[in-house]
Amino acid sequence: MKLSLNLIPECPTAEIVALAVEAERLGFDRCWVYDEGLVTRDVYVVLTAIAAATQRLELGPGITNPYTRHPAQTASAIASLDEVSGGRAFLGVGAGGTLTLDPIGMTRRRPLAAVAQTIEVARRLFTGSSVDYAGDSVALSGAAMVYGRANTEVWLAGRGPKMLALGGRLADGVMLDFILTARLGDAIAQVRAAGGRRICYSTSIITTHEDLEAVRPHMTYRLVDAPPAVQQQIGLTEQDAATIRAAMAGGLEAAAVHVRDEWIEPFVLQGSAAEWSAELSDLCERHDIEEFLLPVFEMPDPAAYLARVASALR
Question: How far is residue 64's CA from residue 100's CA, in Å, rounded to a whole number?
C-alpha cells in the first residue's frame, strides 16, 4: 500500500516544503497539495518548490477543479511540473467545493460534464496531439503542447454515485476523501462497477485532542458539501448546514465552533495507534485499496504527526 500525504498550503511555502521533505525521509510515496484558491498559496508554485527539494515523491494537486483554471492551462501546469520533477507529476481533479469557489463568486455548473471534459482534454494534450474540442464546458481550437507525458496519471476525487462512476470509467484511479466509513464499501463498489480498479482512501487519523481540533475547521466545507443522504445519516440538518456555511464567511475557525464531535467521528479513523492501524489495515485488505492518503492540516507539530502515522503503519 502506498502511503501519501495531502498538504494544505495555508502556512508559508517554506514550511510546506520542509514538511514534504520530512515526509519523503519518513518513507511517504506521494504528495498531494490542496488547490483551494485564495485560501491557500498557489498549488503549482508550492508543488514546484516541493519538486525542487525532493527526489522521489510523486506530486500533484489534491485536488484541482475545472472552473478556476481553463483545463488546458491545468494540463500545461501538470506537464511543466512533470518536467521540473523528472517525471513525478500526476493530475488530481474533482468538481471543486464551497471553500474554493464561493469567495470568488463561482458556481459548479454541470460538474459531471466539466470534470469529464477536463479529463478528456488533459489526456489528449498530454499525448502532444493537436486538439480541437467543442464541449459545453471547455473548447479548444488547434491546441497543442509538446512537453506532455502521454502516460501521466489522472485521478478523480468524488463522493456522489455519478461522479464515482465517472471516475471508474475515465480516470486511472479514484480518490475517496472523508467518505463515511460505513459507506466506504458502497462507494468503492460504485467505482468498480463502472470499470475502475485503483482506489486511494483519504481521511484524518485522530489519536489526541489536538488531532481532533486540527481537523474540525476542515470538516466545515466537507459537511456543507456532503450529499443530503450523508447529512441526514449523521444528523446534520439543513439549518445546521446553513449555519456553518454562513459562518464560513468569517473563516474556517469561526465556522468550526458549529461543528459537533459526533459529525466528525463517522468520517475519521481514531483511537490508539494499534486500534486505528488495525481498522485501516482491515479496510484496505477487504476493499483492495492501494493507497492511503493522510491530510495534514495546521497543528502544533505536523512533522511529529507524520512520524506517528508512519511508525504505526510500519
Answer: 10
